[in-house]
Each structure stands twice: as structure tokens, then as C-alpha cells.
Amino acid sequence: MQREVQEKPRYAVVAAVQLPNVSDVEFEASLTELRELAKTLGITVVHTFIQKRSGFDTNGYLGVGKRQEIHEYVNAASAHEIDAILVDHEISPSQARNLEVEVGCEVMDRTMVILEIFHRNARSRAARAQVEIARLGYMAPRLREAAKLAGPQGRQRSGTGGRGAGESHTELDRRKVRDRIAELQEEIDAMEVERKTQRARRQGRQSLAGVALVGYTNAGKSTLMRALTGSEVLVANKLFATLDTTVRVLYPESVPRVLVSDTVGFIKNLPHGLVASFKSTLDEALDAELLLHVIDASDPGFQRQLEVTDHVLEEIGADVLPRLRVFNKIDHVGDADAQAECEAALRAQYPDCVVMSARRPDDVAKLRQKIVTFFQRDLVAAELFLPWSAQQWRKDIYANCEVLEERAEDEGAFFHVRGERDTLENLREQFEQVR
């Protein structure tokens, strides 16, 4: 009989420095986000240490007194064994090493936490390669500090076993990292060529329009994706639950046929290496004709999340695309009166926005109609005649056009349709050839 293996609970403390230019609201929002990131990793935060300083301590991030306070807490006899200290900033390798030595347990800065989540959640070959590049780029400058902790084996040795004369283990590791990054980048470039070919082939088969869901992680993009397309995509109340781009057809299907893609979520202080590494994932946003910027209406700090998304979209050059702001999770705001008040405030500030809940079918239907209307703005009306001898083309009319009226006459059927100008001309030419 096999026993079910349960993962050992992991506990951590959070340590953060509040700088003078950071407000209490922004600081607390950042700490809350770090706790949610820890939760995604299966880590329970049991205590938070805060210090207000004019700047980070160059030796150990926190001041000497605060480091001693954390040391005493971590090493005190308590119910929980502290596995790590989570630092709410990206700190230097030497700061991390000194803090780890003084406190006596592993130190994970904000960037390392995010990288670990990405590493666990990446599923596709492309996502795994992109995450590995980001992790290697993060670890490369930390190899020297790791060697100091490791002791004499990190020091310089004579040239043996593939090392050049006088080349240290650290230098050798760095060279391996550079070679591995170059190898992974070649794989990603090859996959990118293949992805573009597949997309061109898919779009060439029939007229397709593209919508990309963008926004802060955990804003409800996957739930909305599921509601708009009827697909069984993963929905979880965790940050970065999904990393790989998912593409599905808007359901019920429309004319033109609309593809909806869900992109990786954004977050404050997203490591720059990850923005670069996930460029191919975010390229779905660049390829789209319309962006649905999904925002959590129930989050008091949604304005900051909105700014983060705007900044990342600007970084990848997607800020020029048409955008529809979708304030999701309005049902989480409170009772009906609270929801009405919140919706009125949002519409006053963002007149063209959509306020909704992805769990309400009526709200989803209204959003779908807005999407369809956007893509039908350039459609033209026309009349097509299809002889009775060519009724095999009938399915093409319904697949590529919106049929407003159909009437039968002696020689064939007349269709009053709306569609893209090029599509209508191609259909008319085909029908002329069979008359």
C-alpha cells in the first residue's frame, strides 16, 4: 500500500525597507503582493520585519540592529522552523550573502521568488527555455558570492580538466552559463520562426481577428478567457498560475472569426530579464488588433496595477494598439449598492471602460458583443448570387460572412451579407466562374 507523501510545510519571514519616497499605501501593497507570491510557492509567511531608512544598507540591506533582531527571531525556540527570509527588493549578491550569514537561513529576494514561480509553472518548451535564460542571467553575478560561501573550492586552481591555466571554478561556471544562455537563445529563435510560420498558416486559412488579454497577474484573465471562449483553461487563485500563451476562438463564433489569446500576467518590479525573456509570449499582444486590459476592480490598489501594465506594454511597443479597459471582479466589491457606487466611479474616470464580472453570463455576452462590434466596424454590405448548381459554396458564405438575409429564386439563391471587402470580392469571383 502506497502512502501519500505530503510536502513539508515551509515557513518564512518577510523583511523590507521603506524608503522616504514610498508611501505607506504603496509599501503595504508591495508587501501584500510578496506574501501572495510566497503563497504561490507554498510558503507561509509568519512574521514581517519593517525598517524605515533613507537607503539600503550596503552590507546587508537592513541595518545592523534589524539584522540582529531577525537573527534572534529565526533562532528562537518556536513552533515554526524558518526556512527563508523573503526580501521585498532585488538586492546585490554581497548583500544577500552577508544577510544569510548573519541571520542563519536562506535569503530570497523578490526577483528570486518570481523566478522560482516562473520555473515551477512553465510548461511549454519555449516557456521553460525563457525561464532558464532569466534564471541563469540572475545567477551569473552571484556565482562569486556562492563560491565564497562554499570555501576553498571556489578559489583559483591550476588548469586541468577543461579549465584554462589559472582559471577558477567561478570563471569556469560563468563560461558555462554564457554558453548555455547562447544555446537556449538559439533554441528560442528557432521556435520563434516556427511559431510565426504556424501563425501565418493559421491566419492564411481564413480571415481571423486577434484579441489579447493583458493585465496584472490574478486580475481574472484566465477566468475571462474561459468565459469568452468556452475553453477549459486553468483557473487558479494564485499569482502567475499560467505562463504559456493560450489561444482560443471567441464563442459563439462571429464574423470575422476572432482569436482570443491570454498572455502572462504583469507584476510590479517584474525582473527586466523576464520581460525580455517573455517577449515572445507578449508578442501575442503585439500581433493583436485589440487589447483587453483586464483590471481587478475589487483591488484598492488597482491604479498602481494599471500603471504597471501600461509601463510594460510601452516597453514592448504595444501601447499604440487599440485598448479596451475591462474592470473585472466587480462582484467582489461588496453588496449591490457598493458595486453600483464603484461602477459609477469607474465609468466617470474611464468613460469607455467595461465594468463586469467574468462569472456573470450577461456581462460576458455584453463584452463579447463589444469585441464583435469592434471587428465589424470595417465590414461592408453586399449581395451575392449563388446558382443552384454551386450550392457547395454555401458553407463558405456562412463561414466568412454575416448573412443578413437569404432568398431563393428560380436560378439560385441571393444572400444579403456583411463581410470584409477582399473576402466578398474573392467569393464573388468564385461564384462567377461557376455560373
Structural commentary:
The chain is of the alpha/beta class. The chain is built from 15 helices and 13 strands. It has helices at 24-40, 64-75, 93-103, 110-121, 125-139, 143-150, 169-205, 221-229, 272-277, 279-287, 302-315, 336-349, 361-375, 394-400, 421-434, and strands spanning 10-18, 43-52, 82-87, 106-109, 208-215, 246-249, 257-262, 290-296, 323-328, 354-355, 380-387, 402-408, 412-419. A six-stranded mixed beta sheet has the order 6-7-5-8-9-10, sandwiched between helices. Strand 3, helix 3 and strand 4 form a beta-alpha-beta unit. The longest helix is centred in the middle third of the chain and has 37 residues, at 169-205. The chain is elongated and about 95 Å long. The protein starts with 9 loop residues before the first strand and ends with a helix. Residues 1-5 and 153-166 have low confidence and may be disordered.
Strand content: 15-25%
Class by alpha and beta content: alpha/beta
Determine the fraction of residues in helical runs and give it as a percent range.
40-55%
Outline type: elongated
Largest sheet: 6 strands, mixed
Strand elements, count: 13
The whole-angstrom Rg is 28 Å
- Helix tally equals 15
Give unreliable regions as ranges: 1-5, 153-166
What number is the mean pLDDT? 84
What is the rounded distance between the termini? 74 Å
Order of helices and strands: EHEHEHEHHHHEHEEHHEHEHEHEHEEH
